[in-house]
Amino acid sequence: MKKILIIDDDLHIGNMLEETLTKEGYSVSRAYSGTEALYVLADARPDLILLDLMLPGLNGEEVLPQIMEEEHSKGIPVIVVSAKVDIDRKVELLLGGAVDYVTKPFAMKELLARISVQLRGPAREPADPVLVYGDIALHTDTHEVEACGRKIRLTRTEYAILKLLMGNPSQVVTKSLLLERISQDTPDCTDSSLKMHVSNLRRKLREVTEKDYIEAVWGIGFKMRG
Known about the structure:
Elements: E1 3-7, H1 11-23, E2 27-31, H2 34-43, E3 48-51, H3 60-69, E4 78-82, H4 87-95, E5 100-103, H5 108-119, E6 130-133, E7 136-139, E8 144-147, E9 150-152, H6 156-167, E10 173-174, H7 175-182, H8 194-209, E11 214-217, E12 221-224
Parallel strand pairs: 1-2, 1-3, 3-4, 4-5
Antiparallel strand pairs: 6-7, 7-8, 8-9, 10-12, 11-12
Helix pairs in contact: 2-3, 6-8
C-alpha cells in the first residue's frame, strides 16, 4: 500500500483529501505545519507528499528544500497544492524539487491522476542513442531528428520536449515535469510558453509525416499518441 503524507493546516481540505485517498487504497498520514511535517518525516518515509504552501511556522517554500536535502526524505516526490497562482513562483518551486504543482481549488479527479502518474515512477531520460517511434527517429548523441527519412529542424526546446516524450512513450508526462526536465537543456520554456512550443513541434512533425504524434491530456500534460 502506497503511503501519502498530507501537509496542510486546512482541516476541511485535509479531511477531504484523506477520505478520498483512503478510499482509493492509499495509506494517509497528516501534518498541520511545516515543523510537524519534518518530525513526521524523521519517523516514517511516505511514497509521496502533498504540500500546501501557506502553513503556520515554517511555510511550504521553507519546508520543500529541507525535504529535498534531508537524507531520510530525499527523493520523495512532492506535489505542491496551493492557492498561489504566480507563474514565476510555480516555476521556482518546480526547479527547486517539486514534481508537480496543483492550484486550489482543484478537481479531485485531476489530483488523483497526477498522484498516480508520480507513483508509477518518474519519467526517465532515454539511455539508447537512437529513439524510434513510428516514423520518427531521434538521435540523442547528435541531437538530430528524422521523420520518414527526412531531417526535421527543431529548436532546442522542441528537441528537449520530443526527447522526453519519446523516452517515455506510454506515459503521460505532466506539464510541470516537462518544465523541470527540459530546463536542463533549454532555459527559455515557461509554463505560459510550453503550449506554443508543443504546438510548433506537432506542426513540424505533421508536415513531414502527415500524422499527429503528440497528444494533449487535458489538465495534466502530454504523451506520444498511440
